[in-house]
Amino acid sequence: MIGDRRGVHRIWLTDPDPLRPVAIVTATGTRLLHRAAAAYRLARRLGGRAAGPVPPGLAPTVLQRRRFTRYLRLLDAAAAGATRREMAGILYLHMRPHTAREWTNSTERRNTQRALDKARSLMAGGYR
Hints:
Elements: H1 32-46, H2 62-79, H3 84-91, H4 100-104, H5 107-126
């Protein structure tokens, strides 16, 4: 990874020899234009110029950033040993208290478990 003020560049070097010339290779497919824009940003950065902004299709949207932030908070809470009710408090800031029976049947409990499952799958490699 090469750091940049506007967004990191993720690269894969097949030959770690720093004296060899570098080729920027990208796969074709449905997101070819996004990959080409990322390659152009990297070429600018490697040439000593400002890489420029991350193309809109490559950066997470505001909604995705919020969701990923919640997922990270859930993973941190799980690692700290928080209960599902405590984790639900992360997703539902104004959640009313539930009795044991209400909690068992609550939407908040089911949605919290779904969000935690999604966070764990992303952590296991579902997100680049």
